[in-house]
Amino acid sequence: MAGKPPRLTLRIASYTAVVLLVAAGAILWFVNQQATTQAENQAAARAQFLTTVLLEAELTARDFARPAQARRRRQLDRLFRRAVQEEGIARVNLVTPDGVITYSTDPAAIGGLSHHSRSEVAAALRGDGARHVSWMNIGSRRLKVLQTSLPVRPGRTSGPIGVFELYQDYDARVASHAKKTLYPVAGFLLVAVLALCAALVPILRRMTAAVEERNRRLVEQAVKLEGSLAGAHEARSEAEAARRAMAQQNKRLRELDRLKDEFLSLVSHELRTPLTSIRGYLELVLEEEGGELSPDQRRFLEAVERNSGRLLRLVGDLLFVAQADAGRLALEQRKVDIAGLVAECVEAAQPAAKAKAIVLSLSASPVPVVVGDRGRLAQVLDNLVSNALKFTPEGGSVSVKTSSNGEHIAVEVMDTGMGIAREDQPRLFERFFRSTAAARQAIPGTGLGLAIVKAIVEAHSGRISVTSTEGEGATFRLELPLVKHEKPVEIMEVAA
Amino acid sequence: VIDPQPVPGPLLLIADDDEDILELLGLRLELAGYEVVRARHGDEALRLALERSPSLALLDVMMPGLDGYEVARRLRGDDRTSAMPIILLTARAQASDIARGLAAGADDHITKPFDARDLTERVDRLLRTRL
Hints:
By secondary structure, chain A is α+β, with helices and mostly antiparallel strands. Chain A has 10 helices and 12 strands.
């Protein structure tokens, strides 16, 4: 590819040179033609001059009557010598109208016949003297000659008495004259061609450079295109491989998910069945269906019942979280009066608050109804309030507030408890997360409560957040969006 | 320990492979005044349903052999028992489980662990609607 540009320049340059040379050749040929014609015309004019001005006065009818005798021949020789010697005239003949040569500068020809035919001689007599180029032997030389035949009219009025044949050395009289014109022209042309070439080279170079540049870019683009095509191909096969890997992984994940579901359902069943028996029989005993209980027996069995209840809730929570994780939370979609629900929840928590001497207050402003799962939302509120009570020391206070801003309704649960450390706050809603303070003070809990709260709230397209200063209490804020259009009140299960 | 009722109430068929739960269910229902016939697996439940013609069947879902769904389906498919009210007892209370129970022909379902009062209320209600 690197060798191409110079070759291109060379090719264009040689084409141009050939065209220029052909043009120059044509011009030279034309000039040569013109110059030759002109030289011939000059030569012919000279012949005319010789006959009319020089010879006609000297020649007489006698000169054409018979071949010249020695004396007359010498006279005529003298007459023509200068011309023959100095003017490049090869031969002069005087020819009778019958074609007999009466005098010639070549003595051998005298008395012979002109090599012109009679009709040619006749034409020359009429003044239509032919002029042509031919070859003839002059002595030992074979010479190219311009031959002119002219009538000789001694008197202005009388008819021609003979023909004057002039053989001029073509090279000396015509070609050399033509060359005098031709050579400067050729020289000029050569210079012109060279100048043109010189001028053309940079232009050519620029042109070829532009072409080469475009070529180079095209080649670059082609290479780039090839590259990107290869890249695209590669990317496609990579994407295909990734897709296959992903599909495989998805399949494995689905399988794992299925196994997890099976496991959870099994565990839930296997744990619930014995718990059912434990709680069922315990209930019978506490109802004293099996006989009267002593106060101690009742106290002990109530502890058993409380803890079996905890265990049951834990099983339920685990199952719930697993379902929420799998996006399979089935929520009822009904109108829910949150203010009423909050009031119920606060009322239900009053005994627990009283037991810890905590002031549990409610400042509920009426709020619009939201659409959601009443039972699940109650679970959220219970969770938040019981959490607040759990982490607030005796004598503290917990206040619950509802509000609405047209976009959403908010429920805030504020406590004066231990608060949550800043570093614990981001992880507070994670499953099984327990704050360092809760762990340190051995406050019971599974770390599932807030995770469940978050799952339920988010399933309602709501938000749960916390603000807290450690040691000064915490505020949990729950926001639920208000639906703009009234949804039909019916049970709709939204299972992803 | 338990006082026999002077007038025996309607006969109920209960089926569960867990002996303790079977006993617990029996006790609760007898305390509520019902007469109870107990089956320990699905085949026995089907046999007893035909032999004793109970007023209602309370079937655990997870039983070896014929499970609760299958027993419910067969009871519904038999002319002699097709009108018998059926309650399914399950530890799994997901929507899909409930839907499956309804599809098998159950009239109601009770989740474990059950509340004694809830149990008797549901049984009472179903029997009332059938009478």
